[in-house]
Amino acid sequence: MFCGVFDGHGPWGHLVSKRVKKVMPAFLLHYWQEASAQCSAGLKNANLNQFGMWKKSFKRACSTVDTDLELHPVIDSFYSGTAALTIIREVHTKLIITHFFLIFKESERIHKSGGSVCEADDEPGVSRIRAPHEESPDGPGLALSRAFGDFFVKDFGLISEPDVIQRTVTTRDRFVILATDGAVEIVSSATERDEAAKRIVDYAAGQWKLKRPGYAVDDISVVCLFFHNPVADPEILSSGHT
């Protein structure tokens, strides 16, 4: 089972996120089948475990998705892009999780690539990648260190390579929540996050107005994947606020 949330940003962000949502599953399946075939054939350097195969497949798929955006004849992703949070649920116990919501621990890599990480005066606490030619901190920047698209900073530290981890699901794990930063930034405690999808979205939208009055409410998308439904297959609930 594959599911995810794709959080577009910029003038073309809604089209970028839709494009990534459309093509990523097919690319991922293709590269996983290729890796599986190589392992089955016993080819050199193909001796990967199941997680290794998924990790390699995700990295190759994300690179191909980014190339697809760069070469797309209609969608302009130079100043637009999308973050992503995805999950593969393998049979019974394993979750393969990929995400793009990183920046702080990657500032060294960004600086080595010629980019800079700084905050704008009107957004304290929000770090953004900026190209070196941007003299003013109020110029275009990106509050992500990994994303699809956004080619204006791709040469200055932004990458499309995902962070891939694996988690074993136990009987104590009831569900997993996939949420965009519009929910995660404003809903801080574990207790608050344990609400179901629609309640989280409604609550987060209210918290934006309460904690950041005068700011536009960020796009909020939430998916809840339930693991142990006794009468049916794992249930997915989703909700969103734009």
From TrEMBL:
<protein>
    <recommendedName>
        <fullName>PPM-type phosphatase domain-containing protein</fullName>
    </recommendedName>
</protein>
<dbReference type="GO" id="GO:0045926">
    <property type="term" value="P:negative regulation of growth"/>
</dbReference>
<dbReference type="InterPro" id="IPR001932">
    <property type="entry name" value="PPM-type_phosphatase-like_dom"/>
</dbReference>
<dbReference type="Pfam" id="PF00481">
    <property type="entry name" value="PP2C"/>
</dbReference>
<dbReference type="InterPro" id="IPR036457">
    <property type="entry name" value="PPM-type-like_dom_sf"/>
</dbReference>
<dbReference type="GO" id="GO:0009819">
    <property type="term" value="P:drought recovery"/>
</dbReference>
<dbReference type="GO" id="GO:0004722">
    <property type="term" value="F:protein serine/threonine phosphatase activity"/>
</dbReference>
<dbReference type="GO" id="GO:0000226">
    <property type="term" value="P:microtubule cytoskeleton organization"/>
</dbReference>
<dbReference type="InterPro" id="IPR015655">
    <property type="entry name" value="PP2C"/>
</dbReference>
<feature type="domain" description="PPM-type phosphatase">
    <location>
        <begin position="1"/>
        <end position="227"/>
    </location>
</feature>
